[in-house]
Amino acid sequence: MSKPTSSHAYGIGIIAMIVGLAAGISYYQLYYIPELNAKPKISEEILNPEEEILINMIKGAANKDQQDNFVPKLVNLQLGIDNRVVWENIDETPHTVTLDANTPFEDKYSGKFGSLGVVKPGEKYEFLFTQKAEVGYHCEPHPWMTGKIIVKEARF
After folding, report:
1. How far is 62 from 72, CA to CA, in rounded Å?
2. Where does 44-152 sit in CATH, by number?
């Protein structure tokens, strides 16, 4: 003959399972997610470079026949020296700074590269590069407008 099992044992097992599940969820929300989303530690030299680079979206850049649009088109940067870039729209047409699909890039500190929406005439878009990268970009409404940023370690 087997002994009948107590319903108290099942109740205690269920309570233990609920407590364990709550502890696991608490750990995940309080420790794992914030650590996962935390920005990396970046040196002050890189966060506050000596210079910033200005790229102009020049007048007439929306004209497909004009060769110059982002000036300069190719920019070489050094971390801690000139890794802050400002795009200024001096054209009369809104433009974007959009990451090329074939050069995926997301800065670990600054996040996703690219202007949120259009950069209207007289406005600026700024991005701080904190890691080595090669980033191709273009203007979404005017895809012939292209540029490239190459970010390297500074050599002191």
Report:
1. 16
2. 2.60.40.420
